[in-house]
Amino acid sequence: MANPEMGLLSKIVRYDALKPAIEWGLREEDFLTDEGRAIYQHMLMMIRDPRFNGSTPGINVMALLYPNFDMCDDESVSLEAYCTMVREGKLAVEVQS
Question: How much is the pTM?
Answer without folding.
Answer: 0.93
